[in-house]
Specification:
Length: about 375
């Protein structure tokens, strides 16, 4: 994808009335084939890049699962979080395009980073070669080129954020300590454990098959005990719905929400430890203790990283929005009526896009060819 810096610079100066008709004329709201049939509906443009309806719908569809993973909530709170996230989907897609284009304007090269990231994914999934990774990706129904492009886009945006925004955010050890001292009551917690799991199903299996499942569970536990990343093992081998998040289950207290044998097992373990395989009615479960909070005010060392992340997010979010607002002001961003960019710049000039005009056949060139006469 080329940015077209010259085009962006021109359309950024949209205050010049003379450019309005030019930009409108060259930016149809739909892509069409030679017959004038709509191939893909365009719902937004960011300089010379587009956001299509199919990409937007795909992003919207992914929101509920992603929100559930991030929110650690349920019921009305979860539904409200999903609604808020869906409201900002188009904003996020425009943000990403702005950051990718900015990375290319800055001549950022992430080729080596992308190679390293792909190799890291290969290792995490215990695959021998990059070709094996490509086959695994394609077996999941995803294009290899699209997969690599996602990795590239993530690397580009992270590099821009790090260079342009992250350097503006400074959180020192004294800031973390000061926050802890001022909010100690926030860290007065009951005993809690944060859990992840690997689940192997035994439903519909014979006794011999169940024995084999138990052996697999024991092997996976041994691998985790020997230092393999539990989340990676869960993503690759777990057979429940949490597999895609590395087995994340959430936070639990001694309140009966866990079955008594499971509660007894997990609350005796420390952070980083795993349970023996636990047999349930439907399979074998291995639980990993992501964190274990003892009852009372948590020591500073236990919550230091949590506070660091909280303070970073508090400072980073407004800085990011300020930076992205600046990119919007310097760019041409068009959103189709009926869709909303929740970060649109107030008072920005709206450019009207035009529907594509199908090619009109030249009647003069459509002369009938006379058939040759038959007979005498």
């Amino acid at each position: 994808m080329k940015i077209g810096t010259a085009f962006r610079g021109a359309c950024a100066a949209i205050v010049c009335a003379a450019l309005l008709s030019v930009c409108a004329a060259v930016l149809p709201a739909q892509t069409t084939n030679a017959k004038g049939t709509v191939i893909e509906e365009i719902i937004a443009r960011v300089n010379n890049e587009i956001v299509t309806l199919s990409d937007y719908n795909k992003a919207m569809k992914a929101v509920p699962q992603e929100t559930q993973q991030d929110c650690a909530c349920a019921g009305a709170q979860l539904q409200a979080a999903i609604a808020e996230a869906q409201k900002n989907v188009l904003r996020g897609m425009i943000d990403q395009q702005l950051l990718i284009q900015r990375a290319k304007d800055m001549n950022i090269d992430v080729t080596t980073d992308v190679v390293n990231r792909l190799d890291s994914i290969r290792k995490q999934n215990n695959l021998a070669t990059i070709d094996d990774l490509q086959k695994a990706v394609e077996q999941q129904g995803e294009s290899w080129e699209d997969f690599k492009q996602q990795i590239t886009n993530n690397a580009l945006t992270q590099e821009v954020i790090g260079q342009e925004v992250g350097r503006q955010v400074n959180i020192g050890p004294e800031d973390v300590q000061a926050y802890y001292n001022a909010h100690k009551s926030d860290f007065n917690r009951p005993e809690e454990v944060v859990l992840s799991d690997i689940f192997l199903s035994t439903q519909g299996k014979t006794d011999a098959d169940i024995d084999a499942v138990k052996k697999r569970a024991e092997d996976l536990r041994t691998r985790a005990e020997n230092g393999e990343d539990f989340a990676t093992l869960a993503k690759r081998y777990s057979e429940d719905s949490q597999a895609t998040t590395g087995g994340q289950l959430g936070i639990y207290q001694k309140d009966g929400s866990l079955a008594k044998p499971i509660e007894d097992a997990v609350f005796t373990l420390q952070k980083g430890q795993v349970t023996e395989p636990i047999q349930t009615k439907t399979g074998y479960m291995i639980l990993h203790i992501d964190q274990h909070y003892q009852a009372g005010v948590q020591p500073f060392e236990v919550v230091r990283d949590e506070i660091q992340n909280k303070l970073y997010e508090q400072q980073m979010d407004p800085e990011m929005r300020k930076y992205l607002a600046q990119l919007r002001e310097e760019s041409y961003v068009w959103v189709k009526p009926g869709y909303t960019d929740t970060a649109a710049i107030p008072g920005a000039t709206v450019i009207q896009e035009v529907a594509p005009t199908p090619d009109v056949p030249d009647k003069k060139s459509k002369k009938k060819i006379p058939f040759p006469k038959v007979g005498g």
